[in-house]
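re: ur question from yesterday

yeah so i grabbed the chain u mentioned. its 600 aa long if i counted rite. heres the sequnce exactly as i have it in my notes:
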Amino acid sequence: MKISFPSLYFVLLSLLSLASWDCFGQELLEKKISIKSSNEPLDKVLDKISDLGGFSFSYSPDVIDVKMRVSIQATSQSVREILTDLFKGKVTFKERRKYIILQKNTRPEENKAPENFQLNGYIIDNQTGEKLANASIYESVTLASTVSNEYGYYRIRLPTSPLNIRLEIRKEEYIGRSIPVSSRKDTYLPIKLNPDTTRTITILPATSNGKVNMLTTNLEIPKSVMLSRPMVIEDTNMINPEPGRNYEKIKKGYQKVQSELITIFATARQAINSRNITDTLHRHFQASLLPFLGTNYGLSGNLVNDVSVNFIAGYSLGVNKFEIGAVANVVRGNVRGFQLAGISNIVGNDVTGFQYANVVNITLGNLNGFQGSHFINYTQGNLKGVQIAGVGNVTGAILDGWQFSSGYNYARVVKSGHQIGVINYADSSATIPFGLFSYVRKNGYRRYEIATNELNYFNFEFKTGVSRFYNIFSLGFNGLANNKPLLSAGYGFGSAQNLKRGWSLNGDVTANLVLLKGQSLDKIPECLLRIATSIEKKLGSRFALFAGPSINIFTTDNPGIIGKEGKGISPIWIKNKPDGAKKGFGWIGFQAGIRFCNKI
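ran it thru and got these structure tokens back, copy pasting raw so excuse formatting
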């Protein structure tokens, strides 16, 4: 069906259509029809096409010669392909609601060379003829790029100035193509790709709502980059760690945080390019406001930059020298040199150098150098160097260096260096962790102790860490016995020396608060410093007996509590026996009991 408009009305309608047209919403142009016409007037052919497609054409007969005779034959082709064949690039066509608007191509001819030109067409499976959506089309020098839409159609604008232009086409599971572009004119260029039958098909993991996991999509590294390396343990005393529940929980927690961050920063086009393009592109310098708004355009996730400056956040394949971001830096591959971020650094593979962020660093490969933040550092692979954090450090594999934290430190294997923090955890460790609570799961030192001494009828202690340095948590009580404290609670440190054949020697130092009967909990002035040694004899792998002397220094505002006659072990007083007046005194005591041991 043909609709003619007066010239002014036609111009206004065309301007409105230009303002609202979106090249990726081409439903009318993508309708497939079959038509056969031989030597018929153009307007009659257009009427047939509009009837078959269920839409109308809008054009001016003064601009398009509708009486010229044309021939066309098409079987199940899109309207776009048919119109392209009809007009041979002399007419442009755009969609507006239920209309397809036809206009004369007014781009400058030979008189004035254009600054750029357009290539457009379909990406097609060469074997099946299927139109391929989500294919990446780019030019590696100018970094112009686009992605084929849901109908397989693409359009890319390229500059005319470069002497050599090659159009690169990449699609996952297909063999890539590189096409030299000799013409500098608008050209309809359909491109066929052959399936890569030698490559294993990869199925993306989906989330509970059926959507593709953005963590895997956006941080997948090209095959040329090694993500994981075999874990080599050189120390024979070290135990090759197996994934445990604690590690898996921590790993999943950090990956969930990372997935949310990536979803915020990366665009759908960048995710598609990251999947399709395995080529490594390089730039000496890039600057970006946001991951999708910078000098690397839609190819930012496929570019390795020497220097990267991100005014808010950036997204790249790698960094060779220096990167700074006011909010976040997201790198799919490796970082070498310095990386600084106002909030977070997220790296999909290895870091070699210096990495610092105010809030969190996440490195999914190995780190060789320094990693620091006010909040949390996370390295999924091996760490050789130093981690410093305000809250916590995590090394998912081998720690060959130091972890400092005012909160917690976690490492699968500590090969050298030390963990220094309030809480330290390792699956196995060849060195000493220093903290208020240290736990080494496989080759650590743990004792659950039940004993009696001159102060408490019943004394329970838990010792954890490594044999050379462990933490002690102590609790003693006497029930309601006369001439004894109600209970005591203490904390300390100790060390054990293996004497062979099941014998060992312990040296412990604990500081204890002592609660008397009837005493208010907000006033506990009684303090006991206890220095003890003991000999341990193991009876089997999990059970031991021990006994040994101790030196005790006691301060109190109630001196009459010590020194009265009572049951139990009697102390040997140093210098003077308490006479009810002194507030500080000492004695030599004795302890004996049983210990339940961990199996090393």
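noticed a couple things. The domain at 445-597 is CATH 2.40.160 (Porin). also The two ends are 88 Å apart (CA to CA).
anyway ttyl
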